[in-house]
Design goal:
With 424 residues, the protein is an alpha+beta fold. The chain is built from 16 helices and 8 strands. Helix 3 (69-79) packs antiparallel against helix 5 and helix 5 runs antiparallel to helix 6 (144-167). The protein is rod-shaped, with a radius of gyration of 41 Å. The termini are far apart.
Length: 424
């Protein structure tokens, strides 16, 4: 009590001393107010936050890092309210200030406090998202889009409150007046509304999750989903570029999600060998003897020859000409070999669809398509198995008397002409 009386007497004496210069006393009080606001900010941030950081670091299971993470960012934002409140309370005691200026400073301080609280709520939502993403099932149902909607609502309310504070009106009548502008607001926020609906659908049916490999040619996207937000889906392409896709596009346009392939445990090989149709023919006796040396074909050739022998015997009994007899073909034998080779290959998933089939002949040859699945879905492993299979098939083709079709250039003709010229 005595200290307060002494302080009041000191201020009165100081005011009497500076009476010839009225502005000097006001300037001195303003400086003192600014110093008090700075001290309040210093004490709150440097002392209080430093203690909180030490406390958070000592908590068991802390993973927030040395800066304390989003939780302390919330406290840091809220700490900015203290100096604004000091200024709002102290500006009234500064003498000789116009009442309009005092009202403006008080309103600005309150507006700053509202904005600070809104930013603190935004950081709190970020902290909630960080905590949620630590859950094992977070990637299947992300909540980032919903939290962004909450942020939008918070900042809209904060903006209206700031306008109402600066204008000196109540928030209720201001919101009522804006109700008439609902159609305009719907037009302004139509992308946000569409994105919110799309986010709800995506989260509900799980069509896209973090880590999924998606392919969307219309958006030049082919890679892994690394972020799912309210307005955009971020994809890191395999060439390490980044593509952002509007969230609503994943509802209104088609795209391919490779998650099913990864969950099934097998990746499809669907590739054709284009054979020269002039190389297709029957296998003679020496050729059969040579093909019987393949362990994969021993059972097939034995059963096939028994089937054909019975067929041809019945034809002979009917007196049909020998030209109608059935014989083993090199293409049919090669198809059987390829199928058996795939079934014994350690990298091929034999429990999934496995086909070796002929497609419609084209001007580029006769397509012999291999359709099967690998046991791995990893890109490098898949390409290695596929290359290993077709390396072998291309190398083994001549043993069956078959050739691949290849559009030739004039290089072979020129080489032949050079050889003839050299011989002459």
């Amino acid at each position: 009590m005595v200290d307060a009386v002494i302080a009041v007497q000191f201020l009165e004496n100081l005011q009497d001393t500076l009476e010839p210069w009225p502005w000097a006393y006001s300037a001195l009080v303003l400086c003192a107010l600014a110093l008090a606001a700075w001290l309040a900010n210093f004490v709150t941030k440097k002392v209080l936050l430093r203690g909180l950081r030490r406390l958070v670091r000592r908590l068991p299971g802390n993973t927030a890092g040395p800066e304390g993470g989003s939780n302390l960012r919330v406290i840091s934002r809220l700490a900015n309210v203290v100096p604004s409140m000091v200024i709002a309370a102290g500006i009234r005691i500064v003498p000789d200030l116009p009442p309009e200026l005092v009202l403006f400073v008080v309103g600005a301080c309150r507006a700053w406090a509202i904005l600070t609280v809104a930013l603190a709520v935004s950081h709190a939502l970020d902290a909630a998202n960080e905590l949620y993403e630590r859950r094992p099932d977070a990637r299947n149902k992300p909540i980032k889009g919903y939290l962004q909607v909450v942020k939008i609502v918070v900042f809209v309310i904060a903006g209206l409150s700031i306008v109402a504070t600066l204008l000196g009106v109540k928030l209720g009548p201001l919101v009522t007046g804006l109700g008439a502008a609902t159609a305009v607001l719907m037009l302004i926020f139509q992308d946000t509304i569409l994105s919110l609906v799309a986010s709800v659908q995506i989260s509900g049916d799980g069509r896209v999750r973090l880590g999924d490999w998606i392919e969307m040619p219309s958006q030049n996207a082919d890679g892994d989903v690394i972020d799912i937000a309210l307005h955009t889906i971020t994809v890191q392409n395999f060439d390490k570029t980044i593509t952002t896709i509007p969230t609503k596009k994943l509802v209104t346009e088609s795209f391919k999600n490779w998650r099913g392939m990864q969950e099934a445990g097998g990746r499809r090989i669907k590739r054709a060998l284009y054979l020269d149709q002039h190389s297709v023919g029957f296998v003679d006796a020496p050729g059969l003897a040579r093909l019987e040396q393949f362990a994969l074909l021993s059972d097939y050739l034995r059963d096939k020859q028994a089937e054909l022998a019975q067929w041809n015997t019945e034809l002979q009994a009917k007196g049909v000409a020998a030209i109608n007899a059935r014989r083993v073909t090199n293409l049919g034998t090669f198809r059987a070999y390829v199928e058996r080779y795939l079934r014994q290959h350690p990298g091929i998933h034999t429990d999934m669809t496995l086909l070796v089939r002929q497609l419609q002949p084209t001007t580029e040859g006769l397509p012999l398509e291999v359709y099967c699945f690998t046991r791995t879905t990893a890109w490098a492993g898949y390409e290695g198995i596929q290359s290993d299979v077709f390396d072998h098939l291309l190398a083994i083709l001549p043993a069956f008397g078959l050739r691949v079709f290849q559009a030739s250039s004039d290089a072979m003709l020129m080489a032949a002409q050079q050889q003839r010229g050299g011989a002459e």
